[in-house]
Design brief:
The chain is of the alpha/beta class and 425 residues long. 39% of the residues lie in helices and 14% in strands. It contains 14 helices and 13 strands. Strand 4, helix 4 and strand 5 (116-119) form a beta-alpha-beta unit. The radius of gyration is 23 Å and the shape is elongated. It starts with 8 loop residues before the first strand and ends with a strand.
Length: 425
């Protein structure tokens, strides 16, 4: 078959942190339909607003060929489909492929002969061809690699990062046949200024994506464990890391909570697949257990310090500053700050949470958590959980004014100088 970008009509399925920037860039050159089942999301984008803050109003206007819809029937006009729906884990830490399966069902009802479906969602090696493609075949009645084709190009979006954007991050690409691989690669090359890396197969590209974040997760787990050790030894962790960082090949990781849509999730996709073929991962799961336990560790350290300072814990008032999974970003997905909040409540502590970046409605809907405005002189302890710029600007004096005359200030993210806080991670 002969493939050309000249008549490309692209449908982007899912307009979140990954899909929207992609749709905007493609929309500068190709006819693009941005599709999302969330009608309020379609409405705001049609009005030139992006609540995720990934794209400015000016950037949305630059995508002159981009239209939006929540009607799946509109996708029938497309011939290239790019799927960017989320791939979370369930309460048992097992991969939840339901958004991906539903997207595949929908595409099976709209695709035509000769069309190509490209998946960007993070999955375990083999998921695209083993889980998604059979669904498309079943609902379309078409035959894979005869009537329609598939590609895979894992997303590398870093929410809130205005330096590393979709166009200047090198993109891995793959296709279900050699010709499709070349076609998918040329499609992304048309917008990715950083270039592309064409993998030999879809499975290789899937595996490459899932280990990117698994590697980061394991490295952060090591630093978190070192932080626990250094705390017991009475040594400041940051000072140790800064000293070790003077060596040219020391990796500059920092301790902390590991949440978000990638690092805290992707390793479970890999371990699930490993276990399905009879291998029980040791290091990856150990790292996950350690990182998942950091919320409880933070609270245990805080409570010990409060007791040493003779601050009554039962019924105490604690302010948690920051709820999003990372600084200067409104993304609440899989935030581990919620672990701190839940653990504090186990001690019958009254918890106030403030965050200038996240939506109060989303916090209430996702976690049943009502955000509040901090009260002056009210708190027995303050936890700086997220390094938002607004908190840095406040400085130690204004933050301290939120506490009672006797209180504990715990800085998890090294926002303030060491001499201005009572505890650091």
């Amino acid at each position: 078959m002969s493939l050309s970008l000249d008549h490309a009509k692209i449908g982007i399925i899912g307009l979140g942190y990954v899909g929207l920037p992609l749709a905007v860039e493609f929309g500068k050159q190709f006819d693009v339909l941005g599709f999302d089942i969330n009608k309020p999301r379609i409405k705001e984008l049609s009005e030139g607003r992006d609540s995720t803050l990934e794209c400015s109003s000016e950037e949305l206007k630059e995508a002159t060929n981009l239209k939006y819809s929540a009607d799946a029937a509109d996708l029938k006009e497309c011939n290239i489909y790019i799927v960017t729906v989320p791939t979370p884990i369930d309460e048992h830490k097992q991969p939840d492929l339901s958004p991906l399966v539903k997207a595949s069902e929908m595409l099976g009802k709209v695709i035509s002969k000769g069309d190509t479906i490209i998946y960007e969602s993070t999955v375990y090696p083999g998921a695209t061809e083993e889980e998604c493609i059979p669904v498309v075949e079943r609902f379309s009645g078409l035959t894979f690699n005869v009537d329609f084709f598939a590609g895979y190009s894992p997303e590398r979006i870093n929410p809130g990062d205005k330096e590393h954007r979709v166009t200047n991050i090198l993109k891995v690409t793959a296709g279900s046949t050699p010709e499709i691989a070349n076609f998918v690669d040329s499609l992304y090359k048309s917008i990715i200024t950083a270039g592309t890396h064409k993998a030999s197969s879809i499975k290789v590209a899937e595996a490459a994506k899932v280990i990117e974040n698994t590697q980061r997760d394991v490295n952060i787990a090591l630093i978190n464990e070192l932080s626990i050790i250094f705390n017991k030894l009475g040594i400041d962790t940051l000072e140790v890391l800064e000293a070790a960082g003077t060596k040219w090949n020391f990796l500059p990781f920092r301790p902390g909570l590991v949440g978000g849509h990638c690092i805290g999730v992707d390793p479970y996709y890999l371990t699930h697949k490993a276990q399905s073929v009879g291998y029980h991962p040791e290091m990856i799961l150990a790292g996950r257990r350690l990182n998942d336990g950091m919320g409880a560790y933070v609270v245990s350290q805080l409570v010990k310090t409060m007791l040493k300072d003779r601050i009554h814990v039962d019924g105490a008032n604690v302010l948690v500053m920051g709820l999003t999974f990372k600084e200067n970003c409104p993304d609440l997905r899989n935030t581990k700050v919620i672990d701190i909040v839940s653990e504090l409540k186990e001690y019958n502590i009254n918890v106030d949470v403030t965050d200038p970046w996240c939506s109060a409605e989303e916090a209430l809907e996702e976690y049943g958590l009502a955000l509040t405005s901090p009260k002056q002189g009210h708190y027995d302890a303050i936890i700086l959980a997220v390094a938002h710029d607004e908190f840095s600007v406040m400085g130690p004096e204004l933050i301290r004014e939120l506490g009672k005359e006797k209180h504990v200030l715990y800085d998890l993210k090294y926002v303030l100088p060491k001499e201005n806080v009572d505890m650091r991670l």
